[in-house]
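Summary for the steering committee. The consortium agreed at its last meeting that each partner would contribute one worked example illustrating the joint modelling workflow. Our contribution is presented below. We chose a case with several input lines so that the handling of multiple components could be demonstrated. No manual editing was applied between input and output; the record is shown as generated.
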Amino acid sequence: MSGSAPAVLATLAPGAAAAHSAAPGSALHAARLCLLRDLKLAFRRPAQLLQPLAFFALIALLFPLAISPELARLRELAPGVLWVAALLASLLALEFLFRDDGHDGTLEQYVLSGQSLTGLMFAKTLAHWLLTGLPLSLMAPLAALSFGVPVTALSGIVLPLIVGTVALSLIGAIGAALTLGIKRSGVLLSLLTLPLSLPVLIFGAQATQLAVSGSSWRAPLELLAALAVLAVTLAPLAAAAAVRISLE
Amino acid sequence: MTWTWFHRLASPPHVYALAARLTPWFAWSAGVCIGVALYGALLLAPPDYQQGDGVRIMYVHVPSAWMSLMVYTTMASAAAVGLIWRMKVAHAAAASCAPIGASFTVAALVTGSLWGKPMWGTYWEWDPRLTSELILLFLYLGYMGLRAAIDDPQRADRASAVLAIVGIVNVPIIHYSVVWWNSLHQAPSVMRLAKPALPLSMLAPLLLMLLGFTLFFGAVLLVRLRGEVLNRERTASWIREVVSA
Amino acid sequence: MGGYAAFVWPAYAVTFAVIGLNVYWAQRALARARRDAQRRLAARGEAA
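What follows is the complete predicted structure of the assembly.
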């Protein structure tokens, strides 16, 4: 549960003293505490961390079974399949972003704490990405190899996925914040997040496609990075506004 | 220049009365424009030398597509005004826009598909314009779904406003990425609108139809706006006179 | 219609159906809002 919450929240109050490198009571300090707390809490339930990865692997498994076991065909499909699977797995994981904190009132405390809610949203989303998007991107090569993708193309899978999943987590945080507390909001969350995630899918899959076919994948990667930068700048703001609205 | 007229737009009873007075003007002018445009589109305008009479679908497809995008922009703008200045009337306007825009998006998709069959040979092509329209439809459905899922009307107004604003920022990004994606997988036969400039005999009915549809949007918006304003005013005293009529 | 009739007429029909439905739905929504407002006022009148 949130056993460390009261102690953490006390130190969030502006002006409270704490032995950390960032100035105590500052936004950076608060964000760092929030990040560490989320990571700590998540590692208390390691089984939950594995679920998005398992889901990703399962989706990847569906395609050879549904289409064909021929590696030549699978190699063609691999970029699309990997990215769709990553997108769906990260959508699934979004439900965990605000669920616990929303239930036990921590989120409300964040809003009331007087700290920059945008900074806290960024911290939460970063923690979420470290726990889902990053492991997913690192696991993707295994799925890719099973699809007959050449080893030389693996960097073209991991790197775009790392950048892309950052953007996906940030965009998804907005939808998660908007649907806070709505019962059975899973499908609605997907309906809201997927259209906004399509550019990431397009550029990411294209980068991977070029990598698999041996061409330079720099252009789509740069576009993907641009999307990620845009998301980092704007999404936490929107998520903070959405959280405030949802908790009123 | 006094801004009183603008400030009065924040007042629900004023807006309600104004909307009721303006609706006939928008409705009748829309009817005239669309009627004349229809005559021009079906009878006066010449067939295209490439597409023959099939090009007449353009006179309903392009205005529908225009509507779908224009209404979304209006919706997001109204939502932003409502969010920033906390104006109930603005939120009411945004809520009124959504079903109108969504229905014209469907019209754009269906007419686009019907235009595609004789031109490309298939009812559906993943060309950038149609694909973008489809995504826009999902944006509308998401907006309406979010509104419907939230019980508290104020929270629904404000949450959907955030969504609309996030959506409008994304529309150019989505459109660009779809165009880019499509250019990589260029279909052999790409639908081309009669390039370069349309002759006046074709441009005039098209522009008139565009104007007519826009005026029609105004009329329908004003009708829906009145209902939305009533819903948000609950039991304010001004409603008494208005409703017992 | 030079052989395109099967496409042109349905396209116009769908578009004008959308126009007609918009009119119908908007009027219905306003009527419902008025009815609801009347009901709310009546309820408050009885309670007050």
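Residues 15-20 of chain A have pLDDT under 50 and may be disordered. Chain A has one domain: 46-247.
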